Amino acid sequence: MSKSDMKTITVIGSGLIGRSWAMVFASGGYSVKIYDNQPGQAVKAITEIRKQLQELEEAHMLRGELTAAQQLSLLSSYDDLAQALEGAFFVQECVFEQLEVKQSVFQDVERLVGKDVILSSSTSCLVPSNVFSKVHNRSRCLVSHPVNPPYYVKLVELVPHPETEASVMDATHAVMTKVGQVPVCLKREIDGFALNRVQAAIIAESWRLVKDGVISVKDIDLVMSEGLGMRYAFIGPMETMHLNAPEGLEDYMRRYGPGIARVLTSFGPVPDFCGEGAKEIVNEMCELIPRDRQHLSARMERRDQLLMGLSELKKDH
């Protein structure tokens, strides 16, 4: 496929993730065709995107070199899958996190596109070998797992199917880089990918510390936001260790490795996140932020504003 043919991307699914992906791809200058199997939903998605792009432009937070109007002109909506796929070189699926639904979508897509079209799933917890098990040509398939919300958090995990060709990974990495995302490539598939495995470890130990009466919900969040998170916003755990000892990572592990190993052996079993014992933690969280739509929406908006501001700051570093 020549570069002249690599101008159109199809986004399947017009929910939050689908809309975010459409905005990201349009910010990089791609023509984006949004498809939803619910009639009228793709049109509504563009209406919502128009509002978001205008607000971002007014706040001087719009991504890319194009104006909001120029980016909006790159978007089109479809209720017909064949029309939505016509001319696309890359397909980003963003439907419900249900294996059978995704498998069915990719079966339909494969019948309608050429053999060189890259098929990418936004799944956050389903491995590629399952998502693409009913696709015949799996060499052009991968997971592109974004962090929610993708427009404000730029990391995207690229996870190959066991049969994915290296050229497909490279091409997807190039697309993601062009649109301003920060792609990381996993060398093989693994349950939870990388981000969710690290996140699960943090969640589990945070939950245990609160459940065991060591610390409050409010304070464990401060441990991250005002402690570890301050460093991790700019450097990861490996570099943090490397910089925290006079002679680098090997010196760090020589000094602190035994203590880390001792602490790790004290970790308890995987917590019960939904049982009777979880109610106290849930109630404590809801005292801080009530779970009604008004309060949650306000905090989500605050989160997105903070993420945009941090993203702008990171540009200069």
Automatic annotation (TrEMBL):
Gene3D superfamilies given in the database record: N-(1-d-carboxylethyl)-l-norvaline Dehydrogenase, domain 2 (1.10.1040.10), NAD(P)-binding Rossmann-like Domain (3.40.50.720)
Keywords: Oxidoreductase
PANTHER family, per the entry: 3-HYDROXYACYL-COA DEHYDROGENASE FAMILY PROTEIN, LAMBDA-CRYSTALLIN HOMOLOG
UniProt feature coiled coil, ranges: none
A single MF term (Gene Ontology): NAD+ binding
GO BP annotation list: fatty acid metabolic process
Taxonomy of the source species: Eukaryota, Metazoa, Chordata, Craniata, Vertebrata
Name of the featured protein: Crystallin, lambda 1
Domain (3-hydroxyacyl-CoA dehydrogenase C-terminal) ranges: 192-256
PROSITE patterns in alphabetical order: 3HCDH
Listed InterPro entries: 3-OHacyl-CoA_DH_CS, 3-OHacyl-CoA_DH_NAD-bd, 3HC_DH_C, 6-PGluconate_DH-like_C_sf, 6PGD_dom2, NAD(P)-bd_dom_sf
Pfam families: 3HCDH, 3HCDH_N
Superkingdom of origin organism: Eukaryota
Family: Belongs to the 3-hydroxyacyl-CoA dehydrogenase family.
Species in which this protein is naturally found: Scophthalmus maximus (Turbot)
Sequence ranges assigned to domain 3-hydroxyacyl-CoA dehydrogenase NAD binding in this UniProt record: 8-187
Encoding gene, per UniProt annotation: CRYL1
